Amino acid sequence: MAIAPTDWTTWTPAVRATLLFVWKDGALLMIRKKRGLGAGKINGPGGKLDPGETPLQAAVREVEEEVGVTPIAPVERGRLRFQFVDGLRLQVHVFTASDCVGTLRETDEALPMWVPQDAIPYDEMWADDRVWLPCVLAGEWVELRAVFDGDDMLEHHLETRPITGAGR
Predict the structure, then answer these.
(1) How many CB atoms lie within 10 A of CB 54?
(2) Are 139 and 133 in contact, with CB atoms under 8 Å apart?
(3) Looking at residue 36, what is its pLDDT?
(4) Which residues lie below 8 Å from residue 87, measured CB to CB, with a gap of 6+?
(5) What pLDDT sits at residue 5?
(6) What is the mean pLDDT of the segment spanning 78-95?
């Protein structure tokens, strides 16, 4: 069965979510996700926006709920749009923060870990992460469009631009 091409000019998300990477002392705060979409994979903390929530509010809340710390001064670094062949349309707002406060803890949603930037486990992450995450870590704004069939990325398009005047 052939898959119809995605018309990104009229595409709208059915689900909006966040990812937030605390990037401190050359390491990223990452999680092994325990449930939901991507269970078993490693990624940044994040999740779905609640009604009336901004992406920034959701990003902070999700980090607090998933790993028990509060990110300091998060900055949005990009937007990811995913079309799944099963019909899911997901938009993810990506944030970074240069510090956090609180005590890191495991929850029923996530096992947190600090990962050195030079040892990011891309083989245990979503296939798109190796496309855009290095750009974010290099200080660029990213816009990604990707089509997935389950865990398999069928196609993607990445646009980047430098971020000026902002820290990590």
Answers:
(1) 11
(2) no
(3) 87
(4) none
(5) 80
(6) 96
